[in-house]
Amino acid sequence: MAEKLNDITRKEALDGLIKSGWSPVDGRDAIQKQFKFKSFVRAFGWMSSVAIIAEKMNHHPEWSNVYATVNVVLTTHDAGGLTDLDVTLARKMDALAQ
Amino acid sequence: MAEKLNDITRKEALDGLIKSGWSPVDGRDAIQKQFKFKSFVRAFGWMSSVAIIAEKMNHHPEWSNVYATVNVVLTTHDAGGLTDLDVTLARKMDALAQ
User: Fold this and answer.
1) pLDDT over 80 (residue B1)
2) Total count of domains within chain B
3) Average per-residue pLDDT in chain B?
4) Cα–Cα distance between A56 and A41 in angstroms, integer?
5) Does the residue A1 lie in any domain?
6) Residue from A32, A39, A42, A47 whose CB has the most chain B CBs within 10 Å, to mutate
7) What's the domain range around B52?
8) Residue A93: what are its φ and ψ, rounded to 5°?
9) Considering CB atoms only, which of B40, B48, B54 is closest to A60?
10) Which SUPFAM superfamilies match (chains A, B) (predicted)?
11) Which of the ends of chain A has fewer CB neighbours closer than 10 A, N or C?
């Protein structure tokens, strides 16, 4: 099972993610980001790619979609907070959105 | 452009949808439903089918997904409330979830 990030890995990982637009979620050990696309097809196409990766990782986002916008929250429910899985999935989401 | 449902068509349409688990959204002329599936793959598979239909209709849901659960809100932003488009999409969502 994934373990919560320790202080050192957390700072290192979060610094990078914050630069790419992720931010902490108030009141939860979680991160969030809003992704905007040019159309619904682009937005859902990205979600489809992420969904396949998430299923392979057995680690799934909380996300919502309205037309071309997708809001994502990542945390590891089993661990009660952020783990390596969230950092990995966040980076893959960013890479697929480029 | 789609027009808001009049009182008669609204009652007729909503009665049927309420029987299948849809409910009005507080403070908005919109309807909502929670869909639960057996797995993330089933949930996202259903979303993918709905996404194609929504794009064909040029009418898109507000929806969020956490693992095997999908929460949907339907309204027609252009019309400022519920239209035939929402009723049609709601029925197609139900049919695809069976």
Assistant:
1) no
2) 1
3) 96
4) 23
5) no
6) A47
7) 7-97
8) -60, -45
9) B40
10) PCD-like
11) C
Q: Which residues, in sequence order, are CB contacts of B52 under 8 Å at separation 6+? A: none
- Residue A92 is part of a domain; what is its CATH number? 3.30.1360.20
pLDDT tops 90 at residue B26: yes
Mean pLDDT across the stretch B43-55?
98
The answer as to whether B20 is a domain residue is: yes
pLDDT over 90 at B61, yes or no: yes
Q: Dihedral of CA A50/A55/A56/A57: which sign?
A: positive
Q: Does residue A45 sit within a domain? A: yes
Residue B75 corresponds to which amino acid?
A: T
How many CA atoms are closer than 13 Å to the CA of A32, on its beta-carbon side? 13
Residue type, B24: P
pTM of the model: 0.95
Which residues 30-49 in chain A show a CB within 8 A of chain B? 40-41, 44, 47-48
Report how far residue A13's alpha carbon sits from residue B38's, in angstroms, rounded to the nearest whole number: 33
At CB < 8 A and 24+ separation, what contacts does A15-21 make?
Answer: A17/A87, A17/A90, A17/A91, A20/A94, A21/A94
